[in-house]
Amino acid sequence: MPRIQTFVSNDIEMKLSDIVKIKRSEGASKDEANISNTTAMIIELGIRVYELQHERKANGFNQIEFNKILLDNVVKSNLVCQKLLAISTQNVEVKGQDALSNLTLIAGQIKNASDAVMANFFSGEEDDD
């Protein structure tokens, strides 16, 4: 096995030592958990992350651009739905029926239904609204 000598900061050395201590407290022997093999493991993980980042850059996918386009389309869809809802409440067939013509009531029903669906995915998080 090739040998690589490298210098790290005291903080990194302490973190490596902490990882070794945790492994040993979980029952690993001195041969299974030491600074050398822990450093090798961290380097391997770092190389994998490095390669994945370069692979993502090479394939042209841009998460920020995707998020921007997605948000833009969601906002546009929301605005279109609001306009259509406002137009439909002015329809002669629904005028006078509070359940169908009251925008505030309809908006509340939509919010409640949306909150219920979102709770399925984000049940542990508090809503900031």
Brief description of this entry?
With 129 residues, the chain is mainly alpha-helical.
* CATH architecture identity of the largest domain: Orthogonal Bundle
Counting structural domains, the number is 2
The run of helices and strands is HHHHH
Helical content stands at: over 70%
Main sheet: strands, sense, barrel: none
What would you report as the Rg, rounded to the nearest angstrom? 28 Å
Task: Provide tags for this entry.
Helix Hairpins, elongated, 2 domains, Arc Repressor Mutant, subunit A
Would you kindly provide a written description of the structure presented here, covering whatever features stand out?
By secondary structure, this protein is mostly helical. It has 2 domains: 10-57, Arc Repressor Mutant, subunit A, CATH 1.10.10; 63-120, Helix Hairpins. The protein is 71% helix and 0% strand. It has 5 helices and no strands. The protein has helices at 10-25, 35-59, 63-89, 98-101, 103-121. The mean pLDDT is 85.
Topology:
Blueprint: H1 10-25, H2 35-59, H3 63-89, H4 98-101, H5 103-121
